Every structure is written in structure tokens, then in C-alpha cells.
């Protein structure tokens, strides 16, 4: 009981000194590139600024613990699972949809991939099952939404409930321990490549692929089109329904990959995995500048959004601040980000 | 007894929107207890005028007097307080609320200022409905469950629930069956007998003859005739006042038709029909030919165009390109066969406003610039730029957001999309809506040039001079039926308006 109190007191004055730099970097970085009219880049730069400020705050409040290599690896690893989910979510939202079932799909994929029967097939069996389960759940979402004309919110809410239920049915509420050593090895420091955990490399790969899809392919272009103006896209000859289906498939696959990462990280499969991932992923996409109504957003912004959230959680944990404070801070950040978003949009219209 | 002043006098009302002068010094005088008809072509300023009257638009200039006192209609509530009610063409009811709740929306009878006295609302609503000749409408029913005609009655009950002295009705008969129209006229007679004035907008001259007392004719934002007697003014005079323009449109010259006569039609429409929207229509389009569809709003013009394009599914008939029938109701089939559409609502139906010119132009042709889904952005940009330059789209900047372009250049971006696609049939729905008068001539020239290069164009416009000036052949529509087909040079505006309003079939 005694420890949190002094550390909280301790933090007071130092937080005060930190507010100076808090205000400075974003405004400095905001002014320059805006002249070039690259608003998405400005947003991402200001998110980088926020990350830098957070690093300073972390470095000042807990210099040894925060800047430790192991801690930085931990931040990136923790970002990886939700990050992969967020990349899929971002594409869905840009395409004018929403996927509330991501957390439940992660849970279902992680337990289905860790049943004793699946583990018999070893590494490949677990990875394959996780991805296929995600794909199948995404297929159901996509067909219901694209061809059954269900509202995405409702269809994926139904999937959230049923996938969680199915995960509970499979596990009977028990934790399924993974015994396949080659899977567990990927979580151990021996497998790090130049000090980078394999999970982080996987996250980086998904990010790059997501960025390429959005910015360099017809698929990405059509995603922006159906999210920005579905009627115009339809009248331009785009197969809007098929595009929608593909987006939910993609989100499902991302959840499968995230489930595999979670299995590596925890050495187990649980039906409680991925709890509230849908909210974390949506929040990260929104503070990354993705328009909830669709048609606009960036992969880089979403990934930065994930890093901001994970870093805050990390700093709060190091400072022994309880999760209630973390939640409040998260909410405040979302509100601030959306207010900034409105202001930039309005500024752009005049 | 001194003569009573007019109930309402509007004088010199002016209202401009970006790029358009909607009202240019309009005068209107309405007497208590009269039915005052407002006539004018689409775009003449009728809608803007009634919105000013309803307090929804603020005039830039001009004066309004109400029962002899100068007033300002600064908001819809201010207009309502004076006793002016408006029944819009698109009904503004809340479908999820009951009839009584809709009637009293915003001025519910309350106890203690906030508890709605439901029973009183229902009885009052029932009394109003009875007065309107429809006691069978249950005040407790949801408005969304009622027919269009009954919804209109509810709208009227809402107007009467205020202490109303002037009711504006915007084409109230458009959605009604003949016997429902009779009931409407009975209601109007009852209102005027009580001393309420009615401003009545309709395109149907015979209705104006039946119930109108006086007529004001609007043209190009001006009142060309104020307070004509509705019964005795000859139709000829009224139509003459609605036609003729101050602005001279410059239309490109038509090429000699000889070359086309030998060609095979590129588009053939056979017995295409959509129940309740338009009756079977047959149509042939030669390469290089521009065919115009003339008619009023609601005559089925846009519906025909969208059905040809596959955006609406026909109940019967088919569309053939080069003799091959298209899959019915499939936009993708139409696009694949070489049909392109520039829709009426450019911003809502064609453009990605925040995206660049290049991305808007290339959207229908993306796979041509891609290998295995991978975009060659250089080729995309170059091709889009060639297309926009051919149409002299300004500014010549492929990265400009479409939102920042003028209406005319936004339309060019849509045309460039189909030019790039290499389409052979172009469907144009109101191509110059929201385009400055000055920029129109340029668009006309572009459309004619595309036709000269072999494109077949089907044109819909509510501006009769535009159809007559641009098209080679014209189909005149009235209430979903083609009533006349002729070479554009054999028709004049007067004749077309006669046809669309009176509908005497001559073909």
C-alpha cells in the first residue's frame, strides 16, 4: 500500500516539467509539412511526436526500467498481436465497414489451433489452423454483410457472440497448454534476430503488406472507393459486394495470424484471449487518422496509434499506476485525437 | 370599409447561391382566401421562392410584408408563428412516430411544460384528419405504415395544427391518384372558404384551371407575370411566358446526318419498362448520335437512363449493345459492354470528393493499369492526364482533390472517366446541373465533339432548350410514357412544353 503513494507524489513535479516539451514538438512538426499539403503525413508526424514525448516521460520517470532493451522488446511484442488485428481493422473501416468480432475470432482461432488433435500436426498444423479459422469466420462475416445485406455492426456483433461461445465450448473454460516446442521457441530470446523478436518481425511484415495493399494495388484503391462513396463506386462498375467480402476475409486472416502470435506469447490457447481487442483496434485506427465513416485512413497511422497505446500502458505499469488510470487516459487520448481530426478536416475544407 | 391589404406581399426578392442567381427580384402578392398558382420551368426559382417564404432561406435583398406589416422570416419557426405553413414535395415526416406525434411535432400539447398530453393530441389530430376528409386514418398508427397519399394528408394536418393563414403546397398532386386529387381539391376549397390562402405549385395546367384564382409565372429567377387570372389566361400565353430565355445558349453545330444513316445502331432498347416508373420504351442509338429525353421531373427520364445502365432492374424488356443483350439490372455488364453514365447527382453518385482527379478518372479502368493487382501508378496518372487534357479540365493538376474543382470541371472529370474507359455509349443525366452558364457552352462543345468521334449519347435534361440545342433527335416524355419523337430541328421549346404539360399524343 505504501509504495504507490510516494511514486505518485514523486511523479507530480516531474510531470509538470514534462509538459513543456509536450506542447512543443507537435506544433513544430505540424507547421512545416502542412505547407506541402500532406495532411496524412502531418498527422503521422504528430503521432511520432507524441511517441517521442512518451519516451521522454518514460525515460524521466523510470529511467532504468523504461529504456531497458528488454522493456523496449516487450513494448514492441505487446504491440504486435493487437497491431496485426488493427491492420485488418483499418482496411475494413476504410472500406466503410466495421469488424466487432476481431477479439472473438482471435480467441476462437487460438483455442482451435491448440486442441490436442491440432497440436499433433505440430508447428504447421497450429499456424494453418489458426489462419483457416480466422479466414472461415471472416468468410461468414463477409457473406452476411456483402450478400446477406446485413449491417456490418450487427453481423460482426453476432459473430463476436457466437465465436466466443464456440471458443468456450471447445475449451470448456480450460487453458490449453501448448507442448509443441518449435512454436514455444519463437517466444524465447534465442530466436531473436538482431535483438528483434520474431513476433515483431511478423508484425512488421503484416504492416508492410497492408501498406502495399492499400497504396499500391487495385484492391486498395477499390477499398477507398467503396468506403468513400459506395454508390459512386457501384455506378463506376466496381463489384462493391465482392470487395466487401474480401475485406472481411482479410480481417479474419489477420485475426488468425494474431492468434498464432498470442499462442507463441502465452504458450497456450484460452477462450478469454483477445478480450476487447475490437475496441483497442478501433481506437488505434481512429487516433491514427482513419475516418470511422470510411474512405480515408492510413496503415502507418494505425500502427503508430497501436504503439502510442502500448507505450502508455507500459509507462503506467512501470509507474505502478493501476489499470483504472490507464483506461481513463486511453479515453482522454481518443477524445483528443478525434477533436484534432475534426479540426484538421474543417481546416481542409475552407 | 377600407380595402383589406394583401395577406402577403413579396417584392424584389433576390437570392444567390455560389454560381447561380436563383431569384433575381421576384414579386409575389397573395390575397386572403385565394388559390395562387406558381408556375415556371425547372430551375425558374419556384423552390427557392417557397423556401424563402418558409423561412428556410434568407433573401439577399427585397422586402416582405404580412398583413400590411413589414416582416422578416428569419427562421422556419418565425414563418410558422405568422401562420405560414409549407408542405414540401418530399414529405418531411418522421416515419417512426405516430400520426398524432407527427402532427404535433415541435408543438405538442403539454402539461407542466413537458409532459405530452397524448390523449388530447390524438383527439385533436383525429378532428383535423376528419376535417381533411380522412377520418379513417388512425392517429395512433405509425406514419411509416401509411400510403403516400395518406402521408400527405398527415402533412396537411400538421400544417393545419398551427393557426395557419397561408399554406404553400409544392406539387401536392404529383403522388396522388385522380380521386385522391379530387379530395385534395375539396380540402383546398374548404381552406379558402375559411379565408386561408393557398400557394399552389403544379405543372399540370388543367389543375390550375380548376382550382386556381390567380397565376404568377417565374422564369430565370424573375416573375414575368404577377397575378394573372387563372381561368381566362390562354394556355398559349402562359407557355410563352415560361419559355424563351434571356441567356443565349451557344450550341455546337450538328454534323450532316448522312454518314450515320448507314451505320448499325450501337445501343438498342426494346420494350424496356419498370412498373410504376415508365411504360415500355423502344430506342435506337447510332454511333455519333445524340438523343435527348425531354420531360418534367417525375416523367421517368432519369429512371429510363438508370435502367438502361443496369442500376435499376427492368420489369420487362432488354438492352442490347451491338446486337448483344446485356444481363438485366447489372451495372457491371453495362460498363463491360461499353456504356458509361454521368449521373444526375454528381457528388453523391459519381465522385470521390476527397480523392484526386487521377483517382476519380481511373476508377473504372483500374485493372488496365495493374498486373496481378499491382498498380502501375505512372501509367495510371499519364493516361488519366491525357483524358483530362483532352477535355481541357482545369486546373491541369492530376493531384488536385475533386472537391476543389468547379461544377463544370467535376463533370469533365466524370466524362474523362468514360473517355479513358473508351466507352461507346454515354448516358448523361442533367449534365449541366450546377454548372455556371459560362461553362455550359464548353461542356456542350465537349459532348458534341465526343459524339463526332463516334460516341452515342443519350441525354436527359429538364432544360428544354438544352435538349433541343444539343440533341439530334428528341423523345418527349410525360408521366412515364413517350408521347412524341421527332428530329430536334422540327421542335421548339413551346411545342415541347405543350407536350409535357398537356400531353396531347401526336406520334
UniProtKB/TrEMBL annotation, chain A:
It is found in: Cell membrane. One of its GO terms (cellular component) is plasma membrane. GO terms for molecular function: transmembrane transporter activity. Residues 1-33 are annotated as: Disordered. InterPro entries: ABC_transp_permease. It is a multi-pass membrane protein. The chain crosses the membrane at residues 42-60, 72-93, 100-117, 123-144, 151-171, 191-214, 245-265, 299-318. This is ABC transporter permease. Pfam families: BPD_transp_2. The keyword Transmembrane applies. Keywords: Cell membrane, Membrane, Transmembrane, Transmembrane helix. CDD domains: TM_PBP1_transp_AraH_like (cd06579). Its main location: membrane. Residues 1-10 have a biased composition (Polar residues).
